[in-house]
Amino acid sequence: MAIDEAITQQGLQIAKYKIIGNVDKHIFWPSILSIAAILVVVLCFSETAAPILSTFQSYISVRWSWFIMLIVALNFFYIMYIAFSKFGTIKLGKDDDKPEYKFLTWICMLFSTGVGIGFICFGVAEPMWHLFTSTHTSIMNTTGKPAGVPMAIQISIMDWGASCWGLFSLGGLAIALPSYRKGLPMCVGSSLYGLMGDKVKFSPWSKASDVIAIIAAVCGNSAALGMGVLSICWVINRIFGVTVTTTTQTVVIFVIIVGYITSSATGLNRGIKYLSTTNVFVALSLCFFVLLCGPTTYILNLLTEVTGMCLSEFVQLNFFTHAGSLKQDEWVHWWPIFYWLWWISYIPFVGGFVARISRGRTVRQFLLGSALAPVGMSLVWFTVFGGAGAWAQFVDNLPIWQTMQAQGSEPAIYMLLETYPFGTFACIVALLSLIIFTVTTSDSASFYISLQVSGQSDGSAALGARILWGCILGAMAIAVIMLGDKNAMSALKSLTIAGAAPFCVILVLMQISTWKMLNKISKGTF
User: Fold this and answer.
1) Is 507 left (phi over 0), alpha (psi -120 to 50) or beta?
2) What is the DSSP string of 264-286?
């Protein structure tokens, strides 16, 4: 990987390599070395690393829960204010730029890039967890009862809905404005332009933010990839009788790596675009199948009630810390706090990727589309699968919750699907959808990280760079699974929080920077 030439671009020192193309060496090498150090620790000092990660997770979740809940909740109202303000008509790009993708295609790409894996893994399981363990159902005295099902589903929608996508929208807007209007590299460092001006091009602080963003993205995506692999392996064992070992998990990860590298090699307008559109159609078909074969009337009643609850209780739930208990609430720390940190770790690559595919849209279109459109999918998905799972648990006496306690979240959706006509086929469809979601999420992550380190503003990165970062994501996921062994999920959660915690500060800086950039644009000085 010899240097072919050194070039200077807009004050940036760019190294050009024959295999991986242009890289900003002040971002690339610190990121590579930091991730390599993490891998060494994970692989060589796993017995020491696991309790350290767990301790760090506990510290962040307990001591800083109030701050994390506050910035995430306020962020949603912040971007909604921007969307409906005078800034809403500002274009991401030149005034005559047109959107690169049709609205439906754009939404499919958003959804498949961000949270699709979790929908398959947790569509049935998460409402069940909240029903039997959440603080909210405990306060209502409906723990483990049918009366608690609407609240359990609402909590699931909150975890995957508006506040989550509000984070991605903020990140995408902060990156898109300086990239499309100033020609800056499409990276997290550029999002601080409103605070630093032209100094952002070479400031060590902006470079540091890029390195932190890449580490957070790698950790967050590795967690998602690992979760997807655990679920894939479970259903392979369930349907095909294949014994699951660490070797099996490694082979599955390798196949997925090949899949998303192949998708990445075909380019943004082929691989991710067509896979995303196809898989959203497959997922919606599976959702419709459960609606028809399951307790249709009950699900539709739930959908009506949960919609009303989401509208009426959105604010209260987003600021909820259970302060009235006068003691630390373990459920709050290990559910909403973990989710917010997980989504914060996703801001660099999901927000950046959303920025990359959104040129030509107005700020209002961008924020309302990216923050609110996926909420509808979350509402329908968790109501249909969560409602069907609850009905199976309480009416059909299917021991979903008992099985989850013994085996984790993975069995839940497949246990439900097996009770319906053509159940085995439905399980295979769910498995296929999960695999594609895993591929598209990791594909978009490797695509954006390679773009971020390239120092380019044209939305392109060399194929070799995309392959390199795809392999790094896979290596990290393999390492975490090896670290976790039987407690892989706990290890995945701890590593995600470790990567996301420093990015909380950058999130606040992005909010301030975005406001300053929008003000300058409205005054014609940007």
Assistant:
1) alpha
2) HHT-IIIIIHHHHHHHHHHHHHH
For residue 362, give its domain range.
Answer: 3-522
b/e 452-473 (16+ beta carbons within 10 angstroms → b): bbbbbbebbbbbebbbbbbebb
CATH of the domain at 91: 1.20.1740
Most confident of 152-161, 211-220, 471-480: 152-161
Tokens of 463: 């194929």
What strands lie across the sheet with 21-24, from one edge to the other? 3-9, 12-17, 21-24
Number of domains the chain contains: 1
Q: What share of the chain is helix, strand, coil (3-state, %, to 5)?
A: 80, 5, 15
* 204 Cβ contact partners less than 8 Å away, ≥ 6 residues apart: 26
Least confident among 178-187, 258-267, 302-311: 258-267
pLDDT in tens, 51-89: 777 788 778 878 888 999 999 999 999 999 999 999 999
3: which strand partners?
Answer: 17
Please tell me the distance from the alpha carbon of residue 351 to that of residue 346, in angstroms, as a whole number. 7
pLDDT at 376 (0 to 100): 87
The answer to whether 134 and 141 are in contact (CB under 8 A) is no
pLDDT band of 241, cuts 50, 70, 90? confident
Contact 481, 473 (CB under 8 A): no
3-state secondary structure string across 3-26: EEEEEEECCEEEEEECCCEEEEHH
For 416-463, the pLDDT digits (tens) are 999 999 999 999 999 888 888 888 777 778 878 888 887 766 656 777
Query: What count of other Cβ atoms lies within 10 Å of the Cβ of residue 411?
Result: 20
Hey, what's the torsion of the CAs at 218, 485, 40, 448, to 10 degrees? Answer: -10
Other beta carbons within 10 angstroms of residue 84's beta carbon come to 12
Radius of gyration of the chain (CA): 22
The residues, ordered by sequence, that sit 6+ positions from 40 with a Cβ below 8 Å of its Cβ are none
Confirm if 507 and 78 have CB atoms less than 8 A apart. Answer: no
d(CA 156, CA 151): 9
| Whole-angstrom distance, CA of residue 259 vs CA of residue 267 | 13
For residue 27, what are the contacts with CB-CB under 8 A and spacing of at least 6?
187, 189, 207, 210, 211, 214, 452, 453, 455
Strands 3-9 and 12-17: antiparallel
